[in-house]
TrEMBL record:
Localization, UniProt: Mitochondrion inner membrane
Subunit note: Component of the PAM complex.
Superkingdom assignment: Eukaryota
Name the record gives this protein: Presequence translocated-associated motor subunit PAM17
Family indicated by similarity: Belongs to the PAM17 family.
Any one cellular-component term (Gene Ontology): PAM complex, Tim23 associated import motor
Listed GO biological process terms: protein import into mitochondrial matrix
Chief site of localization: mitochondrion
Key words of the record: Membrane, Mitochondrion, Mitochondrion inner membrane, Protein transport, Transit peptide, Translocation, Transmembrane, Transmembrane helix, Transport
Function recorded in the entry: Component of the PAM complex, a complex required for the translocation of transit peptide-containing proteins from the inner membrane into the mitochondrial matrix in an ATP-dependent manner.
InterPro entries documented for this protein: Pam17
Length: 204
């Protein structure tokens, strides 16, 4: 009996001694976690990566940059339109025959001005294309955030039926919003507009 008890105590002692080692090995095993990457202006994420997100501050910074690109290309495109149409009309032979009852010089000048206006209108589109080419990695995220931002605008802006020429809804499409603080200010203006319209409707 004594020998059996001694063997049992030795076996249980070994088991008790090994148990912490097993537990320690399990605890030291690194847990697998899905990395979550955030897009920033300094280290943009690769497009299409899983778990990829963009914070609102980064989105508004890219939104301001896109608007700057659009403004920057308005004047060059207008000049190109003016120069192109002016050169085209300058190469034509002068004919005293009126066009649509007007002198040809007047028509040529009007056509040149129209070419400049078309170039001015095309400037924002060209700027947007250049912006998307320069920021090709963040383009899918910007498109996704544009849709999400527009959902917030539609959800939180005042009722469009209350819009009028005398009292228009402030920044109906949220085009003037350039930061999170300006978005909060926009929300306050929408609430104030709702209160005013409800007050005037109630007093009628």
């Amino acid at each position: 009996m004594t020998t059996a008890a001694t063997r049992m105590s030795i076996m249980t002692g070994r088991a008790a001694f090994r148990a912490p080692c097993i537990a320690r090995s399990v605890c030291n095993t690194p847990a697998k976690s899905t990395p979550r990457r955030f897009l920033t202006t300094s280290t943009p994420c690769k497009a299409g990566a899983e778990g990829e997100t963009m914070d609102w501050n980064t989105y508004f910074a890219l939104r301001r940059s896109r608007r700057n690109y659009e403004y920057a290309f308005m004047a060059p495109c207008a000049l190109i339109g003016l120069a192109g149409t002016g050169y085209y009309f300058a190469q034509k032979d002068f004919d005293p025959t009126p066009i649509f009852g007007m002198d040809q010089v007047v028509v040529y000048i009007a056509g040149t001005i129209a070419g400049g206006i078309v170039g001015l209108a095309a400037g924002p589109m060209v700027g947007n294309m250049i912006f998307r080419a320069v920021n090709s990695k963040s383009k899918p995220l910007v498109d996704r955030m544009d849709k999400e931002f527009f959902k917030h605008i539609v959800k939180n802006r005042a009722d469009p039926s209350t819009n009028s020429l005398s009292a228009p809804i402030p920044d109906f499409y949220g085009e003037k919003i350039k930061s999170v603080s300006e978005y909060r200010s926009w929300l306050r203006k929408q609430r104030e507009y709702r209160r005013k319209t409800q007050f005037f409707v109630g007093t009628e």
